[in-house]
């Protein structure tokens, strides 16, 4: 490294190497070397003395420093001018949502602002890259700073990782002492907010804060940095999850503008199917209708007893083109998120509720699959078509089912013979193949939270499962399989919906649990969905199907998106893709584009760039799906905790839904709300967690509390912001053998514990 010329040491001021009056400016390398080697250089003046900068040299010297600072190579703070800190060899980077998808850049996820502006990092990729990130992703990357003294950072992605939730977000509560923050995260403790640090926050506001320590005791205090909104006044408890998990919910102006400028598709490049009486069957309160169905008996003598089933899906690919603002925002969101109090859509209303909603009587662009179903229910052939259709009717599930059950109304009466009966006949035939295939029959009830006009819980219902629901599900599954088969046959890249078989560890845990109930499962790790159905059938006969269903569910792998095919274990299918909901899932939009390209149905198919990035797209949208599931679950927990907060002390019936070393989780029968019972409050014994039985077992008495047991509890505490409930167990457990293993010292009673604390 080149060092600057030196001059004799001075007797006052910093002991540093200095130079005679300079005739030329130092090089960039000399400047950086001086900053790195001489720690007593505090600023521009000190650096000028080192290199003997005087007179006419000062102006160009200052310009050089400004250039280095502008390049992010040196940093100017209140205390010093110094070389910018280097990035570690492996670090976490955030790719901006507005980054160019074909020329990605990123910034460090964590950065000390005193080091100056975050360095910009070029993200490398290419056709052979194993990890292909996209705008909005967080990645773990290997960093290269280049060979020069000025870092030119490049990054090779190693992994796409989930973004953590925001660190400190909560609700402001005013009291006689001022203000406090009730954190959203149940693991964080309440903090005081000095009145001068409230910003404009009022009681009940959802805020983001930074935490600072004060006083000799270093007490954490919160300072409001932004006011998000007020869930109570806006009637949207979902705001908490949306901001805690950083779910994009406001469309940028450029996205809205593109959506508003979109025009309806015409017949150009499409088949005219406006006379085919396709109908939509959806929930009664659905605002968008992206799938329509039609069935008729097959007149081919070689397929006696068979049917022709048509599924038409809104042609979102015609409006959301690769590389547009609409496309980037849809990718960033990954999917729509459904809350009891709102929907955060993947696409703006102009697209999802208008142009791509298959409205009754309106011409709409669609991508349709025509499937020939044999008398045995198996699909014999299929073909895809880009069409212009007109929905013959919009029906609700209950409306369609009532007509089939002999209670047709004025609308469904004329549709019964020509449309509804053929649809149900085709469905009855398709169930033969489904039953023979043997998909996992884990039909767990899902509760629906009904809110009033103030956004508070009005009712909790378990929607009735009708054949109308199953009909649509079966036809959508068939269409999804057809999409995967077509793309595979054309050797086209695609995104599969994969569901791997259970791991050997989870299978062994399930075997241990089932063994405690005298239910056997084959010892081989190669199991099929039908094996689990046999277990569930045994459990129904024994009267413990809810217990067994819970454990079977826990043994399953999580379904994800992947560009590699692993099959779908739960549906017992060799290949499966999502094709039927491009309004609300980005995966389906990718599959639509792939079909358009593979079948030559138009110029708006999958681009070369997207084909290269499918691995990264799969990882990203799998992460956004998990984020949406967490947000939906957390919002339901908060609404139920808010609903039950007025019933402290009340008794409830429920089932043990989880067993851990720290205690029991109980799900209430009426509302489906989940709460916790700490292990220290159970009975009069010391309870040990027995994993293979999924139970807490008393050491002395053998009293047992097992997953799925019916119990009575009392509500002791409700924390609506955190969505947490705490129960007291009122039921006794079943009696059995005392728990085995090393004996623990029996815990003192609460009264004894209080006496011990007083003595100390």
Textual characterization of the structure:
The protein has 760 residues and is of the alpha+beta class. The protein has six domains: 1-84, no CATH class; 90-161, OB fold (Dihydrolipoamide Acetyltransferase, E2P) (Beta Barrel), CATH 2.40.50; 169-229, OB fold (Dihydrolipoamide Acetyltransferase, E2P) (Beta Barrel), CATH 2.40.50; 258-485 and 583-594, no CATH class; 504-555, no CATH class; 648-759, OB fold (Dihydrolipoamide Acetyltransferase, E2P) (Beta Barrel), CATH 2.40.50. Helices cover 28% and strands 24% of the residues. The strands form ten sheets. It has a five-stranded mixed barrel with strand order 3-4-5-7-6. Strands 10-9-8-11-12 form a five-stranded antiparallel beta sheet, covered by helices on one side. Strands 13-20-19-16-15 form a five-stranded mixed beta sheet. α10 crosses α11 and α13 packs antiparallel against α14 (545-555). The termini are far apart.
């Amino acid at each position: 490294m080149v060092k600057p010329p030196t001059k004799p040491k001075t007797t006052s001021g910093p002991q540093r190497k200095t130079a005679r009056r300079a005739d030329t400016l130092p090089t960039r390398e000399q400047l950086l070397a001086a900053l790195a080697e001489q720690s007593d250089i505090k600023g521009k003046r000190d650096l000028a003395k080192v290199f003997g900068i005087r007179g006419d040299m000062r102006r160009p010297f200052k310009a050089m420093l400004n250039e280095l600072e502008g390049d992010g190579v040196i940093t100017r703070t209140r205390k010093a001018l110094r070389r910018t800190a280097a990035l570690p060899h492996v670090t976490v980077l955030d790719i901006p949502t507005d980054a160019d998808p074909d020329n990605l850049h990123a910034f460090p996820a964590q950065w000390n602002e005193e080091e100056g502006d975050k360095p910009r990092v070029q993200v490398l990729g290419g056709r052979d890259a194993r990890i292909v990130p996209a705008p909005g992703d967080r990645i773990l990357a290997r960093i290269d700073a280049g060979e020069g003294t000025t870092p030119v950072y490049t990054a090779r992605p190693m992994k796409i990782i989930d973004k953590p939730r925001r660190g400190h977000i909560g609700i402001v509560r005013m009291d006689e002492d001022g203000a406090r923050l009730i954190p959203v995260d149940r693991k964080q403790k309440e903090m005081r907010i000095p009145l001068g640090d409230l910003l404009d926050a009022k009681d009940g506001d959802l805020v983001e804060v930074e935490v600072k320590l004060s006083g000799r005791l270093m007490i954490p205090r919160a300072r409001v940095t932004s006011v998000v909104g007020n869930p109570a006044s806006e009637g949207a408890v979902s705001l908490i999850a949306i901001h805690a998990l950083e779910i994009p919910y406001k469309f940028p102006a450029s996205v809205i503008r593109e959506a508003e400028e979109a025009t309806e598709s015409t017949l150009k490049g499409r088949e005219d199917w406006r006379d085919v009486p396709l109908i939509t069957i959806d929930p009664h309160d659905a605002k968008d209708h992206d799938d329509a169905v039609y069935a008729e008996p097959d007149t081919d003598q070689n397929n006696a007893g068979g049917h022709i089933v048509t599924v038409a899906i809104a042609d979102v690919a015609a409006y959301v083109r690769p590389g547009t603002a609409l496309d980037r925002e849809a990718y960033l969101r990954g999917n729509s998120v459904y809350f009891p109090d709102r929907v955060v859509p993947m696409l703006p209303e102009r697209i999802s509720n208008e142009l791509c909603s298959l409205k009754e009587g309106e011409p709409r662009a669609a991508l349709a699959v025509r499937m020939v179903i044999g008398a045995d229910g198996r699909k014999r052939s299929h073909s895809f078509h880009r069409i212009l259709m007109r929905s013959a009717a919009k029906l609700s599930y209950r409306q369609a089912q009532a007509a089939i059950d002999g209670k047709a109304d004025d609308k469904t009466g004329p549709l019964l013979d020509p449309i509804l009966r053929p649809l149900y006949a085709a469905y009855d035939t398709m169930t033969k193949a489904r039953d023979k295939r043997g998909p996992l029959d884990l039909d767990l009830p899902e509760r629906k939270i009904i809110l009033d006009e103030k956004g508070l819980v009005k009712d909790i219902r378990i929607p009735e499962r009708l054949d109308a629901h199953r009909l649509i599900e079966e036809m959508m599954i068939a269409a999804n399989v057809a999409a995967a088969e077509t793309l595979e046959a054309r050797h086209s890249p695609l995104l599969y919906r994969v569901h791997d078989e259970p791991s050997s560890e989870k299978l062994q845990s399930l075997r241990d649990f089932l063994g405690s109930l005298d239910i056997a499962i084959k010892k081989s790790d190669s199991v099929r969905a039908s094996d689990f159905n046999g277990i569930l059938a045994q459990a129904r006969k024994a009267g413990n199907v809810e217990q067994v269903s819970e454990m079977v569910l826990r043994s399953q792998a999580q379904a994800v998106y992947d560009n590699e095919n692993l099959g779908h274990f739960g549906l017992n299918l060799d290949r499966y893709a999502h094709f039927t909901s491009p309004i609300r899932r980005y995966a389906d939009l990718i599959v639509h584009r792939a079909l358009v390209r593979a079948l030559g149905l138009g110029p708006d198919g999958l681009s070369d760039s997207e084909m290269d990035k499918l691995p990264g797209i799969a990882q990203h949208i799998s992460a956004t799906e998990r984020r949406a599931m967490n947000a939906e679950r957390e919002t339901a927990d908060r609404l139920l905790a808010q609903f039950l907060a007025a019933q402290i002390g009340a008794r409830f019936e429920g089932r043990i839904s989880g067993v851990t070393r720290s205690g029991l989780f109980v799900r209430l029968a009426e509302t489906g709300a989940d709460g916790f019972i700490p292990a220290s409050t159970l009975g009069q014994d010391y309870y040990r967690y027995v994993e293979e039985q999924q139970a807490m077992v008393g050491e002395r008495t053998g009293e047992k509390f097992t997953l799925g047991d019916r119990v009575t509890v009392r509500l002791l505490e409700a924390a609506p912001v955190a969505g947490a409930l705490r129960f007291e167990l009122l039921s006794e457990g079943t009696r059995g053998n005392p728990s085995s293993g090393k004996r623990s010292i029996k815990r003192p009673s609460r009264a004894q514990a209080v006496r011990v604390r007083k003595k100390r």
